[in-house]
Design goal:
It is built from 8 helices and 10 strands. It folds into 2 domains: about 100 residues, Dihydrodipicolinate Reductase, domain 2 (2-Layer Sandwich), CATH 3.30.360; about 130 residues, 60s Ribosomal Protein L30, Chain: A. Helix 2 packs antiparallel against helix 3 and helix 6 runs parallel beside helix 8. With about 280 residues, the protein is an alpha/beta fold. About 40% of the residues are buried. The protein has a 4-stranded mixed sheet with strand order 4-2-5-10, with helices on one face. The protein has a 4-stranded mixed sheet with strand order 6-9-7-8. The protein is globular. Helices cover about 40% and strands about 20% of the residues.
Length: about 280
């Protein structure tokens, strides 16, 4: 049994919060640079150039790449052979509390009805799963409201099938326009249940851009959706062009014979995600 002190978890989470806000992951940065080289629209290229300059300055000067430093979303894998000396949830929330304070990050979490700010960006949203082994893996994906507010979920009729799924996804992106700050990454969750498809869509955003889907059918669907979305002409920040999305990531789960849940979770060009293994 591997013993892990919760104070170590808190420290790692603190560092993840600050790093995720300031240092764009290479997969996202490289995808944006590749889009800049291929973009046909002159205005679109100019916007992409400004985005690149922005995240390079953020990285060099350790500044948040966006003023909306998001609500903290975590996906945590706990090995069966791991033993903690305290509460995992409390440790993560304390790490968020320290990271947002010490990193001078905007606190954006409030009561849903009273709209009173909690003052420290907690509580975080934490998804936990039990896996084999003696390690603890923590993934963070700070999520801003601009892209999150454009996300959707729909309970399709099973007869609508793949074409219905494609239509819903493309319609969602078309209606979103420039609001989610494209170029975006489009996360799609298919199947499961009402809540499961939404979690799948959010989780899919953590997959590195450029990594093929191991499921051949889903991989094909991702390519088809990406082409249709980029043919909409929304372009970088909504100013027109061929680069509306950098990638489409699809995750699926078996569902009830009478339903076809589909969720679309949109990530802006500041595709913030970091992970650590303890």
């Amino acid at each position: 049994m591997k013993q892990i002190a919760v104070k170590d978890i808190t420290q790692k989470v603190r560092d993840l919060c600050i790093s995720a806000a300031c240092n764009l992951e290479p997969d996202v940065a490289n995808a944006i640079k590749a889009a800049f080289r291929k973009e046909e629209s002159e205005l679109g290229r100019e916007v992409l150039g400004q985005i690149i300059e922005n995240f390079e300055i953020a990285d060099t000067e350790s500044l948040p790449m966006c003023q909306d430093t998001g609500i903290s979303v975590f996906f945590v894998e706990v090995g069966r052979e791991v033993s903690l000396d305290g509460s995992l949830v409390d440790a993560i929330n304390e790490g968020v509390r320290q990271g947002y304070k010490e990193g001078y990050l905007r606190k954006s979490v409030c009561h849903p009805l009273k709209r009173l700010n909690t003052g420290d960006n907690t509580p975080a949203i934490i998804h936990t799963s039990i896996v084999e082994g003696g390690k603890l893996k923590i993934k963070i994906a700070p999520k801003g409201a601009g892209s999150e507010n454009m996300s959707r979920l729909k309970m399709l009729k099973p007869a609508e099938g793949i074409e219905g799924i494609k239509g819903f996804v493309v319609e969602t992106i078309k209606d979103a326009g420039g609001n989610p700050c494209p170029p975006i990454v489009v996360g799609v969750g298919i199947g499961g249940s009402f809540e499961m498809c939404a979690i799948l869509a959010k989780k899919s955003l953590l997959r590195a851009i450029g990594t093929p889907n191991p499921d051949a059918d889903l991989n094909k669907l991702e390519g088809e959706l990406l082409d249709q979305i980029n043919n909409l002409g929304i372009g970088p920040m909504g100013f027109g062009g061929r680069t509306t999305a950098l990638a489409v990531h699809v995750e699926a789960h078996p569902c009830h014979i009478a339903s076809l849940p589909v969720a679309v979770n949109i990530q802006c060009h500041a595709g913030r995600h970091k992970e650590v293994v303890i």
